[in-house]
Specification:
About 65% of the residues lie in helices and about 15% in strands. It is an alpha+beta fold and about 100 residues long.
């Protein structure tokens, strides 16, 4: 089995390095990636909160409806709110082109 050594964790009695299976390394890498993703999504939500305080003319210039921004802001962090808002704007533009 492939293992990797962790320098900071040593057996107190023998001073030997602990060896963990490669699956633990993959698990740890997955946890780190998940935490980074969640942190980025929290940062993105703060940007959405900023959009909520913008004047309607600015939102119009950006092509966003206020209710769509509010809905995206309220989505759970597990959902990519920026992607959701982009898809909503695309659907709004498509609907506008069909109606006039």
């Amino acid at each position: 089995m492939t293992t990797f050594e962790i320098d900071c964790d040593t057996d107190i009695k023998t001073g030997a390095l602990l060896r963990l299976p490669q699956s633990w390394h993959r698990l740890w890498a997955g946890i780190v990636a998940y935490r980074r993703l969640r942190r980025q999504r929290r940062i993105d939500r703060q940007a959405f909160e900023n959009l909520l305080y913008q004047d309607q003319r600015i939102l119009d210039d950006l092509g966003y409806r206020r209710d769509a921004v509010q809905a995206a802001y309220q989505l759970p962090l597990s959902v990519n709110a920026a992607r959701h808002l982009r898809l909503q704007r695309k659907a709004d533009r498509a609907a506008m082109s069909h109606h006039g």
